[in-house]
């Protein structure tokens, strides 16, 4: 009708709040709450993402330089022990007797298997050294670590090679012809100490790895169980000014 103002409910509806500029300070009580899964009520992910919502505490990052130094110390100590392996091998390995008939050098006992016996003695000694070195490393550093295990394995290989070289170097000479001429015809002398099966060089590191793995599994320290924070299951607090609180 003329002269009568039309009333529209849509005009009197409250307008949405204006967009807040990024530079405007947001008070602490008006800041969006972060849900346990890292999301805000508006659907935006909080950054940086929080730690596990139900766990407390944490372990410090390992010192890589210290672990490398420990691994190098293990490698050096185990490798030097190979000298003892070589001396024991030289002492306990059976000798292969040779004899000269004036024109050639022959085996004094053609049916003997002294060479196989020398390899067997080396393998048994290497297995024993591997077990002892693994036990010593475990007692020294119970927590293990990649660097320590690698140092133990490489030290076992170097120790085997060093023991092999020590035994052959300090044993009978490798110049069999000159030795036969020096002792004379018909005189029995010892053949050089040699390792026929080169796979025996792996006996030390294999034994060390198996023993160290077993000791760590049985007697090594266990990782602590996380402490669960049950307060994360509580409902979020009501917003400020809410009368339902």
TrEMBL record:
<feature type="compositionally biased region" description="Basic and acidic residues">
    <location>
        <begin position="1"/>
        <end position="11"/>
    </location>
</feature>
<feature type="transmembrane region" description="Helical">
    <location>
        <begin position="146"/>
        <end position="165"/>
    </location>
</feature>
<feature type="region of interest" description="Disordered">
    <location>
        <begin position="1"/>
        <end position="62"/>
    </location>
</feature>
<feature type="region of interest" description="Disordered">
    <location>
        <begin position="226"/>
        <end position="245"/>
    </location>
</feature>
<keyword id="KW-1133">Transmembrane helix</keyword>
<feature type="transmembrane region" description="Helical">
    <location>
        <begin position="72"/>
        <end position="91"/>
    </location>
</feature>
<keyword id="KW-0472">Membrane</keyword>
<keyword id="KW-0812">Transmembrane</keyword>
<feature type="compositionally biased region" description="Pro residues">
    <location>
        <begin position="234"/>
        <end position="245"/>
    </location>
</feature>
<feature type="transmembrane region" description="Helical">
    <location>
        <begin position="120"/>
        <end position="139"/>
    </location>
</feature>
<protein>
    <recommendedName>
        <fullName>ABC transporter permease</fullName>
    </recommendedName>
</protein>
<feature type="transmembrane region" description="Helical">
    <location>
        <begin position="197"/>
        <end position="219"/>
    </location>
</feature>
């Amino acid at each position: 009708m003329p002269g009568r103002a039309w009333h529209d409910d849509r005009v009197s509806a409250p307008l949405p709040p204006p967009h807040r500029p990024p530079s405007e300070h947001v008070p602490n009580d008006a800041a969006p709450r972060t849900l346990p899964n890292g999301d805000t009520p508006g659907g935006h992910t909080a950054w940086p993402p929080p730690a596990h919502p139900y766990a407390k505490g944490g372990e410090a990052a390992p010192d890589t330089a210290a672990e490398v130094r420990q691994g190098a110390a293990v490698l050096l100590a185990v490798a030097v022990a190979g000298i003892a392996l070589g001396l024991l091998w030289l002492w306990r390995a059976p000798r292969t007797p040779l004899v000269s008939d004036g024109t050639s050098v022959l085996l004094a006992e053609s049916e003997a298997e002294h060479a196989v016996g020398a390899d067997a003695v080396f393998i048994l000694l290497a297995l024993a050294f591997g077990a002892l070195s693994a036990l010593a490393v475990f007692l020294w550093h119970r927590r293990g670590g990649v660097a320590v295990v690698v140092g133990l394995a490489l030290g076992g290989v170097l120790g085997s090679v060093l023991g092999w070289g020590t035994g052959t170097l300090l044993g009978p000479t490798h110049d069999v012809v000159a030795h036969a001429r020096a002792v004379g015809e018909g005189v029995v002398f010892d053949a050089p100490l040699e390792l026929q099966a080169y796979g025996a060089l792996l006996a030390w590191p294999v034994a060390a790895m198996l023993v160290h793995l077993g000791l760590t599994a049985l007697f090594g320290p266990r990782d602590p169980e996380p402490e669960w924070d049950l307060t994360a299951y509580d409902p979020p607090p009501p917003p400020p000014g809410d009368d339902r609180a």
